[in-house]
Amino acid sequence: xxxxxHRASQATRxxxxxxxxxxxxxxxxxxxxDILVRCDDGGQIMVHSDVVCKGSEWFREKIQEAxxxxxxxVDIEADHDLLYDVLATIYSGSLGxxxxxxxxxxxxxxxxxxxxxxRLNLQSIKVAVYRKLAKYLQGLVIKWQRSMNYRGRIxxxxxxxxxxxxxxxxxxxxxxxxxxxxxxVKDSYxxxxxxxxxxxxxxxxxxFWEDVCQLKEETTVxxxxxxxxxxxxxxxDPLASQPASHYAKVWVEGGQMVGRCxxxxxxxxxxxxxxxxxxxxxxxxxxxxxxxx
Length: 293
Known about the structure:
With about 290 residues, the protein is mainly alpha-helical.
């Protein structure tokens, strides 16, 4: 058995710095794989100890324990497909094509992936999923701003999408992911609380209502007294000018509600502000928080 581990180690060590596609081929083909990972749903995956031990402290400890007892099997309570996604990320160094979209099905799978990565203490996967979910929820906030500003209510489809990701986050008890949803309500300046369709969400997830109420008590709430017409800096209505633009900051000045569009806000806080991602997604109040501090 030691000889097998030694040969596998020599073979995979050569590929550790290989391109992503080659590393994924290594996982898919099980070429010289030396560790069997068994899921509680009956699925099995052959992996390379050098690769997974380098990428995960959890796997390193479990493999050391297995070898201490003279075998090469690691058991884990996990869905086979989700575990494979975790392993593929460890091998390639990035989330796969399966997580490239920004849609409800990708987000639901991403939250489940986050939960598994949390158990395995894989910080890089958690951060990647967190940023993608933050971008997705910010997209919903933009839609809420537009519909509340022009129609006085938010659309049913955005409420339903929010309800699905929210329910899963609370079901799996993931505080950082729950927090993202709370911040989405805050970034709507709590205006969604005046929408009857949205209020139904709180009946389904009572804890979310308590969390939002607590945040509301700690926050200066801006009463929605009129429709925002233009950005106070550039004089343009961001909700009408560009599909992806929106009000990034709203405040009260001289008794009137005032807003600043995303583009002007970015220019004011600085292009290199770490709160904003390079692809233009807003992260003010959405800093990466994975629950490890």
